[in-house]
Design a protein that fits this description.
The protein has nine helices and four strands; from the N terminus they run ααβαβαββααααα. With 281 residues, it is α/β, with parallel strands linked by helices. The protein has a four-stranded parallel beta sheet, covered by helices on one side.
Length: 281
């Protein structure tokens, strides 16, 4: 969160959940959900990441575990080899430990996983924005100068549907082929870092293929004792040098793509709904 350091963010988060938990206890409302129905809907989406069928064994870390509700949800559908829950609020962790004594679960006060596991979940985060307003959340998107509105519709979660429209005017369109090409180029370059990353992979691919062909020529010379024609050796050398140059340019492109992402300052997540408020929105 911009303007708040890690310690301050943790303090405010802990303060928020401490007040909720003190008021509602070990319930979905106590961990800032607006009921068990929305909480279970969230859990149902999380377990879709698991490739196993119901009853399969699982070793998992859970960041933002609260009182361990996700552990219960998992245990009803998987065989928990090990479940480790982490949360910044010590009262929630104490409640989770009391509710899951003797089970294959452990709970610790931490803001990051302390052990390795096959799967990592964040069942209780990304739903809190503290005192950020709607204007502040959307402002990060609206700061852009080179705007691809279609791309922004996609990343902000707007549902898009195609509709057939009867064109009333029979005149020729003023949206020429050249303008469409310009729009396509502008959309790609202002929204995606893919072209910059693609340069690197193209260079590496050319370099790799050239090296393989050189190896093929060298082995052929050693085995058959036939000389390699000058044209072939010249061309493969040019491809090798060209691939090397493109690969190094691609490395520069990777750094530029990171700068592109930082300059755009797009939020990592967009809050679609706020759960756990006194008045559901």
């Amino acid at each position: 969160m911009a303007g708040i350091d890690r310690d301050e963010f943790r303090r405010r988060t802990n303060q928020h959940y401490q007040a909720r938990f003190a008021r509602h206890g070990a319930t979905p409302d106590g961990v800032d959900w607006n009921g068990s129905e929305s909480q279970e809907a969230h859990f149902a989406q999380l377990i879709k990441l698991l490739p196993y069928e119901d009853g399969a064994e699982i070793d998992a870390n859970d960041l933002g575990c609260g009182y361990g509700a996700f552990a219960d949800y998992l245990a009803a559908r998987r065989t928990l080899v090990r479940y480790r829950g982490y949360d910044v609020n010590d009262e929630m962790i104490a409640a989770a430990q009391a509710l899951h004594m003797g089970e294959a679960c452990s709970f610790e006060v931490a803001d990051k996983p302390l052990h390795q596991a096959d799967y990592g979940f964040a069942s209780g985060i990304f739903t809190l924005r503290l005192d950020r307003t709607d204007e502040e959340c959307w402002g990060a998107l609206l700061e852009e100068r080179e705007v691809d509105i279609g791309g922004l519709w996609v990343i902000t979660g707007f549902e898009q549907r195609a509709y057939l429209v009867d064109k009333l005017s029979t005149s020729d369109t003023s949206y020429t082929f050249g303008k469409r090409i310009n729009l396509f180029v502008n959309s790609v370059t202002s929204f995606s870092t893919f072209p910059l990353v693609l340069i690197f992979y193209v260079g590496v691919s050319i370099f790799t293929l050239s090296m393989l062909y050189i190896l093929f020529l060298v082995l052929g010379r050693l085995i058959t004792n036939e000389p390699v024609s000058g044209w072939t050796s010249l061309i493969v050398s040019m491809w090798l040098l060209g691939g090397t140059i493109i690969a190094f340019l691609g490395v520069i492109g990777l750094y530029l793509s990171k700068m592109f992402a930082e300059v755009k300052r797009r939020p990592y997540t967009i809050v679609r709904n706020i759960y756990g408020r006194d008045r559901p929105r």
